């Protein structure tokens, strides 16, 4: 690599893991990295390893301008704003616009699978960002990140405790991937960037239905788990009854609907190719996280 790379959101779980893999797995020099976060105090560990630290908040134009000074590549880590008011899209577009003004040579961006053909409520945020990146005429590597294995912690522990997993995903399949494998793949894609513009889809190696995931969770934990198939409305009602805040329910229901409609069933070898290593299997992931699953 030549000039400096800014990683935004470097205190987040994915951003921190990308920086760690750049340093440790791909042996990128700390002096070529700039780690950015809204809260730079969270990056003191990286500072002590020689990584330059800058404040980056997509809601703060001045921080974007200052953090991109002298930077020739930027990894824009998508933000976690889930509200329906367009916050995330506004934040991402501000970051792309600032990268353009700063004259960066390549944008790396964390998107989602099939951003252009998805039922997920926030897919339009990712699609608009991808389009803005393409319209900027800056070279790009877009990483369409599949669903983390870690997402299963939202439903499986309670499901395993009760023996029932309410799902509206029907027979739809999903190839979960460990967040750390995504981070390693992104770091690989940054350390040895493609020559042109590329869009990767980072998935696990095997797509499974909820029944197949339940069977695996049952095998690993020794607890019985039956999938109870419900429709979107019933799922939403169940979530409301369980205390899920109302604004989040349409998004969570859209995950199941998207899976049911086969829109996230793809399996690619992009993650393994970029990371140059074997991906964690769902079974190994569950074994390693037995305690979190309540076993
Ligand atoms: N594929 C999946 O299954 C999946 C699951 C969850 C989330 N995601 C997406 O992937 C991203 C990274 O995931 P994660 O696991 O690292 O989530 P996380 O730990 O919750 O991190 C949230 C990230 O958003 C950044 N952020 C929030 N507001 C920001 C702002 N105003 N300006 C700049 N950055 C801001 C944070 O940066 P700082 O706090 O360092 O400023 C942090 O990197 C998420 O933000 C979300 O877009 C994907």
Question: Can I get a quick summary?
Answer:
Helices cover 41% and strands 15% of the residues.
Q: Which SSEs are present, and which pair or pack?
A:
Blueprint: E1 4-7, H1 13-24, E2 33-37, H2 44-48, E3 52-55, H3 61-67, E4 71-76, H4 87-102, E5 106-111, H5 123-135, E6 139-145, H6 156-162, E7 164-167, H7 179-191, E8 198-202, H8 210-221, E9 226-229, H9 232-241, H10 249-260, H11 270-275, H12 282-288
Parallel strand pairs: 1-2, 1-4, 2-3, 4-5, 5-6, 6-8, 7-9
Helix pairs in contact: 1-7, 4-5, 8-12, 9-10
Bound molecules: NADP nicotinamide-adenine-dinucleotide phosphate (NAP).
How does this model look, in words?
With 295 residues, this protein is of the alpha/beta class. The chain has a domain at 4-147 and 177-204 and 266-278: Rossmann fold (3-Layer(aba) Sandwich), CATH 3.40.50.720. It contains twelve helices and nine strands. The protein has helices at 13-24, 44-48, 61-67, 87-102, 123-135, 156-162, 179-191, 210-221, 232-241, 249-260, 270-275, 282-288; strands at residues 4-7, 33-37, 52-55, 71-76, 106-111, 139-145, 164-167, 198-202, 226-229. Strands 3-2-1-4-5-6-8 form a seven-stranded parallel β-sheet, with helices on both faces. It has a two-stranded parallel ribbon with strand order 7-9. Helix 1 packs across helix 7, helix 8 crosses helix 12 and helix 9 (232-241) packs antiparallel against helix 10 (249-260). The longest helix has 16 residues, at 87-102. 42% of the residues are buried. The mean pLDDT is 96. The structure holds NADP nicotinamide-adenine-dinucleotide phosphate.
